[in-house]
Amino acid sequence: MKNAIILHGGPSKEEYYDSKMPSVSNAHWFPWLQGQLLKADIPTATPEVPYSFDRNWKVWNTEVERFDITPETILVGHSTGAGYFIKYLSIHPEVRVDKMVLVAPWLDPDREHTKNFFDDFEIDSNLVSRTKGVIVLYSDDDQQSVLKTVNIIREKIKGAIFKEFHNYGHFCIEDMKTTKFPELLRIILE
Fold first, then answer.
1. Residues 100, 22: Cα–Cα separation, whole Å
2. DSSP character for 42?
3. Pick from 85, 87, 54, 51: nearest CA to 67
């Protein structure tokens, strides 16, 4: 049975603990997308990684692996969550998924914010062959480290599809001014 996992990014410590902010798995367009996928009869999980600002691989991995990842699973990752899925599939060559959609993917290319989260793996250049497609969504006005990550993916992952957006920033509510993301829903369902 088809299912989906939507994985959030890594907030700052201040954002993580800000009582005025929703939890990271309930921020931006995640609840709307989860609701739309549920209405399309696709059970959808939005894991909440504890202390996600710390970017501890073991903690992230423990949380995500609580959910079924099968050849019918759609993976949607935002920012650090997208980078997580790239690494996860790269270090688990036996894992096959339906499709993987990477929104504003981030691999901390200059290693400014992570310690050992993205350092110890090689991106699997044949990753697409274990999916029904890898689609990368990015905005022309996102942070330089995200645009640099997009270029790394373009160089390393053969067959990935790239979709550029204009003025979507980091695909957060502050940038998009909405909690809906119909373009992403269409990409997932097509």
1. 25
2. -
3. 85
Angle at Cα 157 formed by Cα 155 and Cα 163, nearest 5°? 85
Q: How far is the C-alpha of 138 from the C-alpha of 147, rounded, in Å?
A: 8
Identify the domain containing residue 36 by its residue range.
Answer: 3-189
**Domains contained in the chain, number:** 1
Give, in degrees to the nearest 5, the angle at Cα 129 between 126 and 130. 105
CATH code for position 174 = 3.40.50.1820
Q: What is the DSSP letter of 25?
A: G
Report the C-alpha gap between 84 and 24 in whole angstroms.
Answer: 15
Give 157's pLDDT tier (boundaries 50, 70, 90).
very high
Half-sphere exposure (CA, 13 Å, Cβ side) for 4? 26
List, in order, residues 6 or more apart from 140 with CB less than 8 Å away: 164, 165, 166, 167
Residue 115: pLDDT band (50, 70, 90) is confident
State pTM to two decimals.
0.96
Q: What is the pLDDT of residue 106?
A: 97
Q: State residue 112's pLDDT score.
A: 82
